[in-house]
Every structure is written in C-alpha cells, then in structure tokens.
Write a structure and sequence with these properties.
This protein has strands at about 5, 10, 20-25, 35-40, 45-50, 55-60, 65-70, 75-80, 90-95, 110-115. The strands form 2 sheets. It has a 6-stranded mixed β-sheet with strand order 2-10-9-4-5-6, with no helix packed on it. The chain has a 4-stranded antiparallel β-sheet with strand order 1-3-8-7, with no helix packed on it. By secondary structure, it is mostly beta strands.
Length: about 120
C-alpha cells in the first residue's frame, strides 16, 4: 500500500532552477521525517535533504544554500526547490524516510543539468 511518487525532473542549464515533488501514500506521513535522495550512475544513493514533522531541516554540504526542502502534511507531499544547479547535481532523485528501514523506492525523477 505504501507508494512514493516523484515528479518534476527535467533538463536544465547550469545556474537554472527546478522544483521536485513527492507524493507519499500509505504511511503516517505527519509523524515521520522525510528525505530527498539522489543517485548518479556509478554512485551510491546520497541523502541530500531532510525535513522533520515540525519542519526542522538538514542539508548535505554539497547542496546547502542552493536547495530548499518543504512539506505539506495536508497533501502528504514533500518538495525540493533546487536553485543554482550544477552539472554535478545530475542524478535520479528519490524521496523516502530519512532513516532506514526505507519504504519501497519509487521510480524517481531524472534531473539533468547540462548546457
């Protein structure tokens, strides 16, 4: 019954911006800390941002100051606003719990930063 559906990815130029959304269903959304992850080919899946039920946030150093995570408990969604994008941000982006054990991973959404 648990389902995580990411959307919003696409192709952007370096320095551009993009917004991602994650729709979560089948979980008690309001009581869990959610995270955004990314995985580039040949790389490990990396946690890039988290947000707690009371809106405390954390960010990986590589994205701090450029990305903003937010949540809407009524809609059971988690968003990621990405600014000043760099080619090294290119990856498939996923949402899930911020700590294991994770729910089944969704399809993810591809973000490509290239000129």
């Amino acid at each position: 019954q648990v389902q995580l559906v990411e959307s919003g990815g696409g192709l952007v130029q370096p320095g551009g911006s993009l917004g991602l959304s994650c729709a979560a269903s089948g979980i008690i959304f309001r009581v869990v800390t959610m995270g955004w992850y990314r995985q580039a080919p040949g790389n490990q899946r990396e946690l890039v941002a988290t947000i707690s039920p009371n809106d405390w946030t954390t960010y990986a150093e590589s994205v701090k100051g450029r990305f903003t995570i937010s949540r809407d408990n009524a809609k059971e969604t988690v968003s990621l606003r990405m600014n000043s994008l760099k080619p090294e941000d290119t990856a498939v982006y996923y949402c899930n719990l911020a700590r294991p054990p994770w729910h089944p991973w969704g399809q993810g959404t591809q973000v490509t930063v290239s000129s």
